[in-house]
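Quick one before lunch.
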Amino acid sequence: MKKFVFYAKSNPAFLSSLEKEFSHFGIEKCITLTKIRLNYIKFETTLPKVWNLFAYSRLLEDVKIEMAKGVSASSEKSFKICLKSIPFQQFLPIEKCQDYQLPKIKAMCFRSELFHEKMIEKITVNYLNKYANKEYFDNEKKLKVNEETVKDEERLRDLVEKRENLKELPRLDIVFQKDRGIFLLNMTTTPLYKHGYKIYKNWGTLRETYAAALIYESKILNNRDLYLWDPFCGSGTILIEALMILLKRPIRNYLTLKDEIFTELPFHDNKAFDVFLKEEKTISKKQEFDILLERDIHLIGSDIDSKSVDSYVKNCHFANLYKFKFKEDEEKKLQRERSQIVINPNIYHEKVNKIIDIFMGDFESIATNVVFKYDKKKFTIFSNIPYGESQEMSERVKIKSLYKRMGKFFRKYSNFVGDVFIIVKKRSKKDDLNFQNLTEMKWEVISTFFNNGIEVEFLQLNKTKIE
Ligand SMILES: C[S@@+](CC[C@H](N)C(=O)[O-])C[C@H]1O[C@@H](n2cnc3c(N)ncnc32)[C@H](O)[C@@H]1O
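Model of the S-adenosylmethionine complex:
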């Protein structure tokens, strides 16, 4: 089967985890491309392997297919000439271009003589229009001209309708490093970091891909059993990702993959895709049967904010978690163990299924009233805590006291909890909101990454240093 070259994107901090995930999916020999500031992994493989990534990779944020590489241009003129060598007809639906919008074109030049990125974009748009020799390939521009000049309202309405019916094409990136360039076309128009269940989210929420990467980094899933508590759970991303990884659930249903734009591009292999879809259908049917856990899992999410709890509950619905059915004998075992615990009736409690519970309340109250009641189990704490981003003084005071309170809590209850993993804003030692200072505890930095433009740290509590 024909092989293509692809570029896969993830958060730069998690590229090596993505590489590990790739080897798990049988994609070896990856080259991590950070040199040209692309933050991509480059790999060569067949289309079915990439469809499999779309369905199962929890870290992947974007995949581009290489249309051309090693293109050489150092001036406007030579760029125009080099366009003639790009096999656009193999990658874009030129024949049926009247049904599509023009792809968004993004040029990036690093230390290149072709420093004028907007010029590259414009030349490519013009070239594609001329190349396709079709009226509508640059519909946006055409419409603008018509809005100004055409008085005929009916014709204008016709044009607007046509534009709205046009399908979106994936983005085309043109990247030049010195005088060498590559042309990359996105495979999808929907971002791959969205795992489909997070319809409701609140502030400070973690991307699904980041939550998955941190779960891998923490190695918490290597243990036989998993008792996990997220005391600041927000919309529940960490817990939902952990469960989906454990149960090897697909991220994208095969039916949604059918609608992705890559299926309409000329290089798409319809025959092989049909085989892939059939296999996926069989797998998804199997997953609807009773789930065999093979290990003991209990996931608890809690948050002080009612809106967050509500969004977590709704996301669990969207992820179909309420419908999970476990093998009969396991159901009985879980039922027996968990029904023995009496929970304070004043605490809001939502039972999603036999392994997920959601509570509303301050972390300390949930610890003493709920989590510590499961006395045979030490729960691992894994949480993306408030960052104290707001400049408002009252907010800073609140965060300060929250971090101090967390420090006291971990010191007092260190024997009651398992490992502790925290995601918090990175701050200098002198900053009065520095988490490590305020908790007065020793934390190991596992990784540092940018979450929504904020530099954050993934910390693990060093329990050996607790006096
Ligand atoms: C950064 S957000 C968590 C986002 C979450 N990881 C997600 O991906 O959706 C922090 C959460 O901490 C909650 N929170 C703040 N103070 C709290 C407290 N004292 N006890 C429990 N939760 C608290 C907030 O309501 C907020 O939902």
